């Protein structure tokens, strides 16, 4: 069943609000026997598994080209010959679902091959112009590691324990608390590179907690990320005011967690 699957993250690019809602509705109506698709929020820090873009939008094409080691992309409309798969508008649901499933299968095969070769599976969004042709699975441009711990704010320590079990390139010091005042105190007493706040944690206002953390002296490089479930009404404006770096949608796959920690921790 869909509820038991880790959703396939889809980044929508270049669509008007109405057309974006239509594409999201088509993805939500995918056959239950196939992948479960989850369009990413604009504030999401999760790396997409697939990009679905308006092939007639120059801004979308430029954004796609600006991604470091971009994932497979399906373009609605536009000209062939750019190395991407195209479908013609108005896109039929069956055509969209078939093309998406085919791209996802190709991506899984490519990732399995990279894993077998011991090559990196994950890539960051590019911060500099591409110097040459894109290569799937290319190595990351390394940034100096940030000192500090990862702080988990949640009702239990399961996420902390899970992160500790994941294989990272370097050890991570992970702390946990279920108390907002304790989280603020810990961020003041020790260097914290990343604070992850589960919005489902009881008696915690994630925006107020982020603002309190970021208001402390020396917290400029502490990235605050919200773990957001479907029932939480995420507010982009409040998040910006609280200096939240972004969000991850739950359930979060291990690859997405590793990618975020590689970037922020």
UniProtKB/TrEMBL annotation:
| PROSITE patterns xref list | RESPONSE_REGULATORY (PS50110)
What InterPro entries is this protein classified in? CheY-like_superfamily (IPR011006), Sig_transdc_resp-reg_receiver (IPR001789)
Q: What SUPFAM superfamilies is this protein classified in?
A: CheY-like
Which intervals hold domain Response regulatory?
149-265
Q: What is this protein called?
A: Response regulator
Q: Which species does the entry assign this protein to?
A: Massilia niabensis
């Amino acid at each position: 069943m869909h509820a038991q699957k880790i959703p396939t993250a889809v980044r929508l690019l270049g669509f008007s609000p109405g057309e974006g809602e239509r594409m999201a509705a088509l993805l939500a109506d995918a056959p239950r026997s196939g992948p479960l698709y989850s369009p990413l929020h604009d504030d999401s820090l999760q790396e997409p598994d697939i990009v679905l873009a308006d092939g007639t939008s120059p801004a979308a094409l430029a954004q796609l080209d600006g991604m470091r080691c971009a994932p497979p992309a399906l373009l609605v409309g536009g000209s062939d010959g750019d190395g991407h798969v195209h479908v013609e508008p108005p896109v039929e649901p069956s055509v969209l679902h078939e093309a998406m499933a085919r791209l996802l299968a190709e991506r899984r095969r490519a990732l399995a091959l990279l894993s077998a070769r011991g090559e990196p599976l994950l890539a960051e969004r590019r911060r500099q112009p591409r110097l040459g042709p894109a290569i799937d699975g290319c190595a990351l441009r390394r940034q100096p590691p940030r000192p500090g711990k990862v702080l988990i704010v949640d009702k239990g320590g399961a996420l902390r324990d899970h992160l500790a079990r994941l294989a990272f390139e370097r050890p991570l010091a992970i702390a946990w608390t279920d108390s907002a005042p304790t989280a603020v105190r810990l961020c003041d007493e020790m260097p914290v590179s990343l604070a992850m706040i589960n919005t489902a944690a009881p008696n915690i206002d994630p925006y107020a907690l982020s603002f309190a953390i970021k208001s402390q002296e020396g917290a400029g490089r502490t990235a605050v990320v919200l773990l957001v479930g479907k029932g939480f009404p995420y507010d982009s404006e409040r998040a910006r005011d609280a200096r939240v770096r972004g969000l991850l949608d739950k359930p979060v796959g291990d690859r997405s967690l590793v990618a975020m920690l590689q970037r922020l921790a």
